[in-house]
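Practice record 12: protein with zinc ion.
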Amino acid sequence: MAKTATTSAKPDNKMLRDFFLGFVKVHVLHHASREPIYGVWFIEELARHDYHLSPGTLYPLLHNLQAAGYLHREDRVVDGKVRKYYEITPAGAEALGEVRTKIQELVDEIMQPTAGEPPGRAASS
Ligand SMILES: [Zn+2]
């Protein structure tokens, strides 16, 4: 994994960065399921969400998703330059569906910290 990944949170915290890179992969699949995306556009989209990734981090990530069969790449010439567009594949859509379910379950739990606690362990300890 490239060392250039940074987030606005704590760029020096490797564990957090690993979490965020996982989020980024899901985020890629989400947008690629709606329309073909390309690197520069996606870097700007990530910045909108306050993630600051360099091309040196994003492009290998896109390539890995493609190698896994989750993205299909199509090269198009735009303004005389080749631009690599990525679109989700059926396998990617299936993975996204599974991840979406897991994220929902996780969000439901962690956003209500006391909800799933055994009796007597709720509230502050
Ligand atoms: Zn987004």
